[in-house]
Amino acid sequence: MTADEIFGKYLENPHWKRQYDEAPSETCKEYIKWSYIWSGMNWFKTGTSAQKEKAHEKMNDLKEKFDREDWEYIIKTAGGASAKAEYTKQMKQSLGEE
Amino acid sequence: MLYGERSGYTRLLRLIYNEVKPMTDIERYRKRRARRIYSRLDAWEEEKHPRDASGRFSSGGASGSSEQKEESRPKTTHEGKTESKYRNMRNSLAGKIGKEDGTFDLETGEPVSFDNGYQVSFQTSNSEEIGSDGFMGDKDYDSAVDDLSKRLGSKPYLGKFGEPEISFHCNDYDTCMKMATKYNQHSIFDWSKGDIVENPFYDESTNKIRR
User: What pairing do the DSSP bridges indicate for beta strands B163-170 and B111-112?
Assistant: First the structure.
């Protein structure tokens, strides 16, 4: 399964498509795209460890460019209380609020 | 053997007869009716009709009598408490913690954080909403917590970000993924990466994300 195929698979699900389409910026959209690819590699057990690592590095690089609106969107759309709380911590660190 | 004296075999048959009494007409009718409903539901297709922790259809529908459904609904008191041990622990701890968000030890209330493994829950928006598809009664909720604790080898934790939920910490990715799929979770949280692994098959119709 290629990265594009994984991304396409996520976009077939209306929830994931809407989350991608409604992202507040191109940076956030790109992050969500790589987030789907990285998640799909894990979920469908495809890709090498190096490919997974590379996909996650892209996510981290994009996170560094996030502004408050991007972070708030990621927190808002995350599932699970622990994830939302951890993203909030990351946002505060990233924006120098901690 | 004298006439009228029962042989061991006859006594055994009588014992079995007394234990397994023949069905009455109403029982036969109920069984036939259940079979008809079951066949209409395509119930053999587990994907279409997932079952909850106790083996019942989690989507409600034709499964279970109205008495059973009534029994599984939480009986709330004037204080808003339920009869669920874990729901009470969850709500009580969330109240004590106040505004702080994060992951907490359900028993001690201490905040926790992990360097590895995954955090997975089973709770959905519908599991907490009385009358909705997939609503979990107190007994079902408690047995799901106990069952998942065993399967995931984790004690229950409290995840809090506004609405509190019970979640588990597990190092085995496959087990977490299976649980997340079974309970239609949006994602699982990867502690080492600090990101969520999103479930491609997530169905938002029975588990809306609280925004």
Answer: unpaired
- Which tens digits make up the pLDDT trace of B28-46? 666 666 665 555 554 444 5
Q: Is B161 in Cβ contact with A85 (below 8 Å)?
A: yes
pTM, to two decimals: 0.72
Domain of B3 in residue numbering reads as 1-39
CB-CB contact of B202 with B185 (8 Å): yes
Residue B176 near residue B118, CB atoms below 8 Å: yes
Whether the pLDDT of residue B205 is over 60: the answer is: yes
Nearest-by-CA chain B residue for A79: B186
User: Chain B contacts of A38, Cβ < 8 Å?
Assistant: 195, 197
Judged by CB atoms within 8 Å, which residues 16-35 of A form the interface with B? 16, 35
The structural domain count of chain B equals 2
- The 8-class DSSP code of residue B208 comes to P
Q: Which of A78, A94, A47, A44 is nearest to B162 (CA)?
A: A78
Are residues B186 and A80, on separate chains, in Cβ contact within 8 Å?
yes
User: Which token pair is B72?
Assistant: 């599984």
Is residue B210 over pLDDT 50?
Answer: yes
Specify the DSSP element, H or E, that contains A49: helix A49-64
Residues B22 and B97 in one domain: no
Beta strands in chain B (DSSP E): 102-105, 111-112, 118-121, 157-161, 163-170, 187-190, 195-198
What would the pLDDT profile of B11-27 be if each residue is shown by its tens digit? 777 777 666 656 666 66
Domain annotation covers residue B210: no
Q: Are residues B59 and B106 in the same domain?
A: yes
Nearest CB neighbour to A85, from listed B103, B185, B204: B103
